[in-house]
Amino acid sequence: MHLLFEPVGDKKLYTQLFKQFLHEYKNGSAILAKLLKEDLTAAGIFIHSMKGVAGTLGMHQITEAAIALEANLKQDPQSIAKNSAAFYVALDAMLDVISAAYSEPVVNQTNTLSNSAEAELLIAQLFELLEDCDGEAVEIYYKLRDDLEPIVDVSLLDRLGCAIANDFDFLAATRWLKEIQLARGLS
To answer: What is the value of pTM for the model shown?
Structure first.
């Protein structure tokens, strides 16, 4: 059986990274298609970034498709249809695999965060994880983000997520989490 990816190392870390990949690139094909029509420079940056992430995570088909598309974009940007199609197929297949592997049970709408007390519990848990520099903070962040996105300024949530998931700057993340508490009126 040919694997779409070959993780090596810490299973817990890869679980977090794959979930982060799924969250960040779930609309990757649509985003790239738009960039290829509107901004080839940004498309090139997106492809290059995807190549690096996929390579790091052992996603060989995406990496190879990104290499071909990146080369095609540099050599002949007007004829990228063939290589972009291969890239979309590889990315969408990987997203399907990750989604199936790490799917979480569907939550009934009545079980979402409906009051400040429940939000405060998740925030308190995130504060503890940040204080302990625990990578589980990434997973809690995504749960919290999904629930707070409709009611908290998205830029605050983005800053928190960047500090946790990209920069691993848990001190900065703690500051952003306090900002979110203030924005929500939580103590």
So the answer is: 0.53
The 10 Å Cβ neighbour count of residue 19 is 19
Dihedral of the CA atoms 154, 100, 97, 43 (nearest 10)?
Answer: -20
Which single residue is written with the structure tokens 């009934």? 108
| 75-117: pLDDT as tens digits | 887 777 767 888 888 898 898 888 888 765 433 333 344 446 6
Compute CA distances 61 → 32, 44, 75, 110, 187, whole Å. Answer: 17, 18, 21, 40, 47
Number of Cβ within a 10 Å radius of residue 121: 11
The Cα–Cα gap between 138 and 130 comes to 10
Beta-carbon count within 10 A of 101 CB: 12
What is the spatial distance between Cα 66 and Cα 72, in angstroms, rounded to a whole number?
Answer: 10
Tokens 């625990």 belong to which residue?
Answer: 134
The phi and psi torsions of 106 (rounded to 5 degrees) equal -65, 130
Helices 28-38 + 40-56 axis angle, to 10: 150
